[in-house]
Amino acid sequence: MLSYNLFIFAVSLLVTKAASAPATSSDPAVNKYFVTFGSSTSQTGFSVNGTAPSSKNPIGNPSFPGSTTTGGLNWLGFDIAEFNYTTILAYNLAVGGATTDNTLIPTYTEGIATYVDQVNTFYNAYVHQKPPWSWDDVLIGIWIANNDVGQSFDRNDTSSLYPKVSARYFEQTQRLYDAGARNFVFLTCAPQQLTPLMIEKGPEINAKVAAAVKLYNEVLDKNFQKFKTAHLDARAWLVRPSKAYETAIANPQEYGAPDATCTNEDGVSCLWWNNYHPGIQIHRLLGADVATTVGKPWFNSQ
């Protein structure tokens, strides 16, 4: 385990190197691609109308590591700049506040691109045009669960709602498969009951959040297995963010934090960037889990 000061130095060096120097290769023939959909825990501020990802800036726009909710790199940044096996170009459609579908679980404010919207944007920008990749080189990443639960955990109809949400989720994923995608990594809902925000709400609310997370993930897991069975020519992996969260929370001092609930927008002095979003250390652990789960030819196992 890196010491706290050494970790901060390593992150600083990594951001500087990735933002200013070419990655492993500039040859498109050996590039891999990571196309991601999600919410604030995945966002980097990418616009399909801006500069495309390249070996000089693997997220394309804005400058690396992008507009994140960690204080620095998020899990995606670690995966494409530290845990990468080769050059990975990231086309990240994730938007803060996103849910799966506004008609099922509305976003907290209007105008936020849901998973449905993000897939539509992807189709218009890349599928309906000639994409810059071979689909064999593309990994699809989806982490869209958190706001679906956060915006609905106190509803009385979650047992019927979450199967509908998950069905819509996999309808969109099917569209990605139909476009040509054959490699998918799915991230389950994070253990939101462990966030400072939900802890502050008290044990009764916290128990409702934990129950909603459990139910959502059970439905997601079931439909993930169905997706795998129905698409034998595809590869699909499931990653549970709970492992990364729980590892850091169990030993906050080991990860540079005085306790498990403090917040700091520098992303490294506490485990939490704010009272809802994890900081850099939890994201690094999550990125490592994704890298190890998926492995080559995209990532080195950690």
TrEMBL record:
One of its GO terms (molecular function) is hydrolase activity, acting on ester bonds. PANTHER family: GDSL LIPASE/ACYLHYDROLASE FAMILY PROTEIN (AFU_ORTHOLOGUE AFUA_4G14700), GDSL LIPASE_ACYLHYDROLASE FAMILY PROTEIN (AFU_ORTHOLOGUE AFUA_4G14700). Residues 1-20 form the signal peptide. Keywords: Hydrolase, Signal. Pfam families: Lipase_GDSL. CDD domains: fatty_acyltransferase_like. This is Fungal cellulose binding domain-containing protein. InterPro entries: GDSL, GDSL_Est/Lipase, SGNH_hydro_sf.
